[in-house]
Amino acid sequence: MRERPITHWLPITKKEVEQRGWDDVDVILVSGDAYVDHPSFGTAVIGRIIESEGFRVAIIPQPNWRDDLRDFKKFGRPKYFFGVTAGCMDSMVNHYTANKRLRSNDSYTPGGEAGFRPDYATTVYTKILKDIYPDVPVLIGGIEASLRRVTHYDYWQDRLMPTILEDSGADLLVYGMGEQPLREILRLVKSGVPLNEIRDVNQIAYMDNVPSVPEHETWSTVALASHEVCLQDKIRYAANFKIVEVESNKWQANRIVQPVGKRTLVINPPFKTMDEAEMDRSFDLPYTRLPHPKYKNRGPIPAYDMIKFSVNMHRGCFGGCSFCTISAHQGKFVASRSEESIMKEVDEIAKHPEFKGYISDLGGPSANMYRMKGKDESICARCQAPSCINPVICSNLDTSHKPLTNIYQKVDAHPDIKKAFVGSGVRYDLLVDDFNKNNADGNHDEYMEQLVTRHVSGRLKVAPEHTSDATLKVMRKPSFKYFRKFKEKYDQIQDKHNLNQPLIPYFISSHPGCEEQDMANLAAETKDLGFRLEQVQDFTPTPMTVAEVIYYTGVHPYTLQPVYTAKTKEEKQNQNNYFFWYKPEFKRWIKNRLTRLNRNDLAKRLVGDYQPNYAQENLTAKVRKGGGKYRK
């Protein structure tokens, strides 16, 4: 296959700008990620939208912030504004584990190398740009800016921080998925409105240089407790979160204001969820679907390798899980693409020079929410609930899997596709009739049969997250009994077709509402089901989640009632240890610990009549430490 000309990518060097015959650039994007021209990478999407609106756009991916800052100066001053994003992840989540240990790799960098973006990248980049070009406006966006738009708890500094607009000095913030507000902003700046004077676009936030702002002629306004009050009163901070989450999930939301020092943060209401035509317009832009050629000799980009043969069919999630940022950033309501757009992308994937006929994922944030929405959308327009499926599935929610089954079958019939897998996690509770009463025509069973027999690549990912009903209630997840019922249904289909494709359940330790005995019981219940859990997620409190608020304040933001949370390193490690009941080096600890907790019943379920073998345990400990001849 012939190499594409460099002009098929958006320019990232001065030479590439000159090759296009440009003397200057209208908008410059600065990103913490390497530039991959693919619709799963936010910088590519934003860049292509700016291009589609007739602007000359260039990208500065992963600039060096430690040297003489030449990367920030290479294109000079943009005509309209700089756009800044930390990348596809919050930079602190990207850099650190739940135990605050520095990660040794970065999936969004060539070769997976760490160290190519700073901590708090959005703030660092913006401050540099403001220092070099103080009169050029800066627009910030992406998940880091979006989830830090109000006063928020930062786990890594263990303190409350103000809106990222205050810390960074940016002029404007776009929150959530940015296509709709960005197109409005571009239309205004093209008409002559300076970016730092834009005030009436939905889904933006900005700082007003007054302690209070006048009423808006279109939107009602709801006030949060000030940043300074939050610093002194955790309960007021918790109450703030409920307001922000409720307004973020409404179709007809209010404007939010929050005093910060002598200024006021203003957050305009979000746009209504993108419709099918708008989604297609974003995904059908002329992406090369390839990393920029500059990275050719630096090694593969792991995040790209994972998704290059996948299709993202929808956005958003109506689950509203307490620990998850998907609905906080992408929205509670699901935005789906048309079949035509999806099949067009399948055609493009088939042209990829490395494609061997296997699509790695037909999915989305939750794989099986495609085209799901309210039956009567006037009811949705009045809804304020953070979840459509917790504590029960809304009777107004259309959970038909028929459109998804049809897509799977059409992709299967494509002449260039040997197999299309579902790599995203499946929301299993939607497929359990005892929990989901909206399965009138039995289409869920048809979907399950199609999924299990045609689209599982060895193992299927699902996320029960816990077994304790009390913890699951805090998580906004259904009872574990429904996972058992799903597993029964899944195993029946496997037996029918003589398949052996194990379920891979995901669980979280140390989540708010989880006590140590709950983790021991989780280990016992999953052992009884035949699971040996290998990958375990320790809870990380990320901004703009219910669980983060509980972790910091000790209370649930909706009830303001206390909720226990494991916080010390010892408490968190104790909970994590129970996952590994099958490893010799943990058996003695588990038995002793549960004996002290007066839970001999759980000790017997997990380690039986275990008697310590100190010589073997000492040998195992040496192996784990990687000591000399004992390494295996």
Automatic annotation (TrEMBL):
SMART domains: Elp3. Keywords: 4Fe-4S, Iron, Iron-sulfur, Metal-binding, S-adenosyl-L-methionine. [4Fe-4S] cluster binds at C317, C321, C324. It comes from the Bacteria. Residues 303-583 form the Radical SAM core domain. Pfam families: DUF3362, Radical_SAM_N. GO terms for molecular function: 4 iron, 4 sulfur cluster binding; catalytic activity; iron ion binding. Binds 1 [4Fe-4S] cluster. The cluster is coordinated with 3 cysteines and an exchangeable S-adenosyl-L-methionine. SUPFAM superfamilies: Radical SAM enzymes. Its cofactor is [4Fe-4S] cluster. Belongs to the UPF0313 family. HAMAP family: UPF0313. This is YgiQ family radical SAM protein. It comes from Fibrella rubiginis. The lineage of its organism: Bacteria, Pseudomonadati, Bacteroidota, Cytophagia, Cytophagales.
